[in-house]
Amino acid sequence: MAKAAKVKIRVSTQPVVVMEAEVARKIRQHARTSMKAEVCGVLIGSTEHERMMVEACIPGNNAAQGGAHVTFTQDTWEHIYKIKDKEFPDHKIVGWYHSHPGFGVFLSEHDLFIQQNFFSNPQQVAWVYDPHTDEEGCFGWVGEKIEKLTAIRVGYSQNIEVSASGVNDYEDEDAALDSMVKVRRQGEPEEPAWVRWTSMGLGYLAAPTLIARARCSCSAGAASRARTSSAGCASSKECASHSAASLAAGEDSRAKRKRWQTLTTNRR
């Protein structure tokens, strides 16, 4: 049987996007402030080869908002660069984000126009979030096209490492294009501090209530056992009294019968 021919192809890989968990939280929080109109902002971070680190975001204040579109105005850009120059002078704009309240995650024609004209760098992405469904996705440049990216990680960047180069060789044309991100198992990040503090606080608040309930249960059980014991004692005493009375009655009856028999014998 003839061996299937292998074709060597070259595939331009998707960029690897690593977003800090706090950035994702701020984007979602911003989107939930407007459940009927879109909001927008820019992503701040750094790039290294095919890896993009999203470390902060700046809300797009004064943007022209609509139910199904959003536009960066001149006032919006002035606000963005003012904050960036002050707080993130050593970082760069690595993309933008916007919300799709209630109509899913994709890039509309208007969104594509913004990506192509304002975020045309191959290492700039578009992040989309739907606050109605909590669905989110990331789009970026793959070659000369804008596609939905799959190599996305939201978490803690210090625990994520990348094993990929800009261009990969695949000998089999059916080879799967797997994610190029490996998440370290060792030293896995703990849950955020505020989650631990909240859990501990709730535990401390609940402890007195649980202890009080336990004491009430113990008291109720003891009282129930005491009542049962008292009732049992009373029943035992009653039974003993009845038994003694029965015995006395029996002895009295036998004594009377004996006296009657003696009398009858004497008369004879």
Q: Which fold name fills CATH's third level, the topology of the domain at 9-189?
A: Cytidine Deaminase, domain 2
What's the CATH architecture name of the domain at 9-189?
A: 3-Layer(aba) Sandwich
Counting H and I runs of at least 4 residues, what is the number of helices? Answer: 4
Global shape: globular
Report a brief summary of the structure:
By secondary structure, the chain is an alpha+beta fold. It has helices spanning 21-31, 74-87, 109-118, 193-267; strands at 9-12, 16-20, 40-48, 51-59, 64-65, 70-71, 92-99, 125-130, 135-142, 145-148, 152-155, 160-162, 167-170, 181-183. It has a domain at 9-189: Cytidine Deaminase, domain 2, CATH 3.40.140.10.
Descriptive keywords:
two-stranded antiparallel ribbon, alpha+beta, single chain, Cytidine Deaminase, domain 2, disordered C terminus, about 270 residues
